[in-house]
Amino acid sequence: MSVTAGSRIAAALFAASCIAQPLAAQATGSLASQLAGIVAPSEVRLASGRPGPRYWQQRADYRIDATLDPVTETLRGIERITYRNNAPESIPHLWMHVEQNICAKESLTNQLNQPPLVFLSSAFDFSCQGFDGGLVLESVKVNGTDAKYLVTGTTMRVDLARPLPSGGTLTLDIVWRFRVPAYGAGRMGHDGALYELGQWYPRMAVYDDVKGWNADPYIGAGEFYLEYGRFDVSITVPFDYVVAATGTLKNPDDVLTPAQRERLARAKTSETPIAIIGDEVGTDATRPEAVGTQVWRFSADSVRDFAFAAAPNFRWDASGYDGILIHTFYRPSATRWPEANRMAREAVKYFSEQWMRYPYPQMSSVEGPIEGMEYPMLTFDPAGPSREELQWVVAHEIGHQWSPMVVGVNERLYPWMDEGFNTFIDLANSARYFSGSPYGDSIEVHPLHLYGDHAIAGQEQPLITRPVESRDLFWTGYQKPALMMQVLRFQVLGRDVFDPAFRDYLKTWAFKHPTPSDFFRIMRDNTGVELDRFWADWVYGTTRPDIAVEAIDNGEKGATVTLQNRGTMQLPILLRVTFADGSVENVKLPVEAWNLGDTFVYRVKNGKKVVRAQVDPDMLLPDTDRTNNGRELR
Question: What string of H, E and C letters represents the secondary structure of 88-103?
C-alpha cells in the first residue's frame, strides 16, 4: 500500500468515527424502534443488511407468443408461466397483475378520476384519455386444466385445485388479447404505426417473506414489483416492422439483412455509433423479405419484466461498451436523436464504472410518444425539446436498470429507493456529460434549489409515503431522496466511506428484493456509522433544517461562536469564521454537535478575535431560513 493510499484510508476511517451517531437514543423511542424493526433480523434477512442463509424468493419463467396487428390495433398472446414456489410454506392460490385493465371504463383509476402526475414540463395522465379498453382473457389453465379465477380491476386471483407445496412447480397457460390504446396510462401506447408495449401480458405478483402476496392494484402513480425469471418471447409483426425488445435477438438471420448483421458486429466494438438502419429507413431495403409477417424471437434471463417496441420507420444506431451493445431506435422526425446513442453509451459506461457493471448483453432506448418509462434492457423516451432534457430522460431511464431492474425494490411502496436512488446517480452523470457548461456545473444542486418550493411546512409528506398517497411525488419520490443521498455522500459520510457502501448494497441485492431496513443495515454495516436519526429525519419524517449563528463572544478565555439548531432536523455544521486579521477558518462539525441539545458553542483555539461567523456559506445544505445564518461584529 502506498503512503498516499494509506493516508486516504486513514482519513476516511477517522471521518467515519467523527460522525458516528448514537443509537436509538438520538431519535424518539417509538420511531427508533420502527426504524430498527421494519423487518426483524433473521436467517432470511440478516442484521448486517444482507440476505441470510434462508433467504428465498419465487421464480417465474415466461414463454410468450405475441402477435401485433396494426390494422386492428390489437395485440394477442399465448402465454405459459412456469412458477416455482421457493417459499417455506404451501400456496393455495396465485395473484397476478392484469394491468391493461387500467384502461377499462370501470377501472379504479377512472372511478377515482386520478389526477395526472406533473413533473416540471412532463405530465403522466393515468386515465388512458378516455380509451375504453382492457384485457380480454380467453383461457386460463393451471397444469393443463381450466382454472377458477377472479379478476378485480388490475389484479387477478387464480385458485389452485391443490396448494402448491414448498419447492413445487406449476404451469399457468393464458390466452388473451386487447386493443392497444394510443395513450396507455402514460407508460405504453402507439403513435400511428409506432407501438411501445409495456404492461402488456398477465404477470405474476411477488410473494415474499415480508408481506406474502404483493397484489396492490395498479392505479398509476405506483409502478411495479415483479419476480425474476427467464423470458422466451416471439413477436409476430408485419414484414416492414423493426422490433426493439428486452433480451437478445435469437434469430437475426431471419429478420435482419446481411448488411445489418455485419454493421451490428462492427458496432459491438465501436465507441461511436454505427447506423444499422440509416437513410434507407422506411424502404424495403431494411427488411430481408418484403411480404407477409415476420417473427422476432428474444430471450432474456434474470429479468423481472419484458417490453418491446415496433415500427416500420425506425432509424437504428448502435455502438459498444465493454462487450455490451447500445442501441437507439428513433423516427426521422426526432432530429435530436442522432446524439442519443452517445448519451446512452456514456450513461451505461458511467453507471457501470462508478457503481456496478451493467449485467445484461444489450441496452436499447426507443424514441416515441411515452414521456419516459423503463423496462429491463429497454426504455421509452420522448423526442426531447432540448439537448439537456433529452440527455436527462435517456440517461434517467437507463439508470433504472440499476434500480429497480437489477436491484428489485418494491416500487408500489418505496419509490424513494427506486426513483430517488436513480435520480441521485443521474445528477452526477449529467454533470459529467455537460461538464464545463452552465447546465453541467449546476445540475447536481438542482434538488437543493427545489427545497424551498416543495418542503412546505404542513404540506410536505415523508419519503416513506406510498406513491398513490403522495401529493407531490416529484419531490417525495425523486428529488428529496436524491438530496438525502447527496447530503449523506458529501456532508455526512464523505465519498470514501459512502461509495463503497452503496456499491455493496447494489451488488449484494442484485436480482433480489431489498426492503428499507436492508438498505439501512447494510449502510451501517459498511460505514460503521449509526444513521438511525438520519433515516428518521429524511425518510420517516418531515423535519425542518435551520441552523443559526446566535452569538459571537471574544472573551478573555478566547473567542466562541454560539450556534443554535432552530429546526427539527439534525445536520452537520459547516461554519466559516473570519478573524480580525482577515484570515478565514472553515470548520466542519459532525452531527454529534447536537447530542446535548439544540445549542452548541464552538471554541476558537488560535487565540484570534472573531469578527464574522457564517453557517453553510456555500449553501451546500438545505435550510428553511438563511437570514439567520450569519453574524458580524462591527
Answer: CCCEEEEEEECHHHHH
> Which CATH number applies to 547-632: 1.10.10, 1.20.120, 2.60.40, 2.10.260?
2.60.40
Q: Where are the domains of the chain?
A: 3-52+437-538, 56-227, 547-632
pLDDT of residue 121: 66
**CB atoms closer than 10 angstroms to residue 566:** 15
**Set of cell numbers at residue 11:** 482519513
Starting at the edge strand that comes first in sequence, how are the strands of the sheet with 91-97 ordered? 148-152, 155-164, 91-97, 203-204
Predicted pLDDT at 47:
95
Q: Are 563 and 575 in contact (CB under 8 A)?
A: yes
Angle between helices 495-508 and 3-18 (to 10 degrees): 90
Q: What is the structure's pLDDT at 30? A: 38
**Phi then psi dihedrals of residue 297, to 5 deg:** -115, 130
- Helical spans, DSSP H, in 41-184: 108-112
Angstrom distances, CA of residue 479 to CA of 527, 536, 592 = 24, 18, 26
Overall size of the chain counted in residues:
634
Name which of 70, 65, 64, 63 is nearest 239 in CA terms: 70
> Do the bridges between strand 229-238 and strand 59-69 make them parallel or antiparallel, or are there none, so unpaired?
parallel
> 388479447: which residue's cell?
177
Q: Could you tell me if residue 385 is left (phi over 0), alpha (psi between -120 and 50 degrees) or otherwise beta?
A: alpha
Task: Find cell 412456469 and name the residue.
Answer: 82
Give me the pLDDT at residue 10, please.
28
How would you classify residue 445: left for phi > 0, otherwise alpha for psi between -120 and 50, otherwise beta?
Answer: alpha
Rounded-to-integer distance, Cα 68 and Cα 308, Å: 11
Count the neighbouring beta carbons within 10 Å of the beta carbon of residue 89.
Answer: 12
pLDDT of residue 8: 30
Q: What is the pLDDT of residue 127?
A: 80
Rounded Cα gap, residues 244 and 198, in angstroms = 12
- Cα-flanking dihedrals φ and ψ of residue 97, to 5°? -100, 130
Q: List, for residues 593-616, the tens digit of each pLDDT value.
A: 999 999 999 999 999 999 999 999
- Fold: same for 56-227 and 547-632: yes
Residues 6+ apart with CB under 8 A from 243: 235, 237, 255, 296, 308, 309, 310
The pLDDT, as a whole number, for residue 32 is 40
Nearest to 230 by CA among 296, 170, 306: 306
Q: CA-to-CA distance for 253 and 268, rounded, in angstroms?
A: 17
Residue ranges in the chain whose pLDDT is less than 70: 1-37, 120-121
Q: What is the DSSP letter of 180?
A: P
Angle, in degrees to the nearest 10, between helices 340-354 and 419-433: 110
Place of cell 371504463: 105
The SS3 call for residue 236 is strand
Nearest CA to 119 out of 450, 426, 436 is that of: 450
* CATH class of the domain at 56-227: mainly beta
The dihedral over CA atoms of 621, 454, 477, 38, expressed in degrees to the nearest 10, equals 70
What local confidence, expressed as pLDDT, does residue 556 receive? 87
Cell readout for 231 is: 423470458
Q: Are strands 145-146 and 136-142 parallel, antiparallel or unpaired?
A: antiparallel
Q: Look at the block and give the residue holding cell 472573531.
A: 610
Contact 318, 273 (CB under 8 A): yes
